[in-house]
Design a protein that fits this description.
The protein is mainly alpha-helical. It has one domain. It is built from six helices and no strands. Helix 3 (about 35-60) runs antiparallel to helix 4 and helix 3 packs across helix 6 (about 120-125).
């Protein structure tokens, strides 16, 4: 038997921080798409590794561009999958008939690109 549980805590999806909404989308998409789950897991691991590299740059003052290029590539590739699938889910929800009240969801996606990572290169080293 399929069950859906909605509690007052779930109001964070609507009125809470953007992270709550992203987490909700992630949970839904991970349940229905193996590709999404793999992309999100790979993205998260790559982000952790890249953050560790940033800490190493702070400590040593030396930046290994080849290592950053590898992790940046993984981040960009998987961020594209994540953003595309989130956008598809939002479109799917928007296209469905709403019986109780009409609403439209907006997806303000943040693109991950090589140019964007270069733009914030110095600031992210300072932030670690």
């Amino acid at each position: 038997m399929s069950v859906v549980l909605f509690t007052p805590l779930d109001l964070d999806i609507v009125s809470g921080q953007p992270g709550s909404r992203r987490r909700f989308l992630d949970e839904v998409l991970e349940q229905v798409s193996l590709d999404y789950r793999v992309a999100l897991t790979t993205y998260t691991k790559a982000l952790r590794q890249r953050n560790a590299l940033l800490e190493l740059v702070q400590e040593t003052g030396s930046r290994d561009e080849d290592r950053f290029a590898y992790w940046d590539g993984l981040l960009i590739k998987n961020a594209d999958v994540i953003a595309r699938m989130r956008e598809e889910l939002i479109s799917y929800i928007n296209e469905r008939q709403k019986n109780l009240f009409s609403f439209t969801l907006l997806y303000d996606k943040s693109l991950m690109s090589k140019e964007r990572l270069l733009q914030y290169k110095d600031a992210e080293v300072g932030a670690g």
